[in-house]
Amino acid sequence: MGAESPGSLLPSGQPYDVRLTLDFTDVAAPDYAPLNYTASICAKKLGDHTRQHVGEAHGSITPSEKASIRVEGTTLAQGIYRLEAAVSLTLTNEEASSRSDLTAQMKGRVLQVY
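The structure assignment produced for this chain is given below.
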């Protein structure tokens, strides 16, 4: 995550990206079958516990050892936030009806917007 480079400080009003890396090492998924994904990012403001939806991305990826998803974030007001991510994966072909979705959630590091 960052505006040009990874970090935990971000000027207010500055656009930024959140990059999620998915590790498929221990996931049993067919190598040939692409997966649809939905990735949602929220920012939880520390101190008052408000949560703001800051970005969402949709697309498809082919499972490999690791895959990366980029989510464009909306600007945040000054404050200290903890970013939270949720990713849902589904098969894109006829096998989808015989298997359930794979969902992962993660809390990220603290981000200070100044």
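Interim note for the steering committee: DSSP finds no helices and seven strands in the chain. The beta strands are 9-10, 16-23, 35-45, 51-61, 66-73, 79-91, 102-113.
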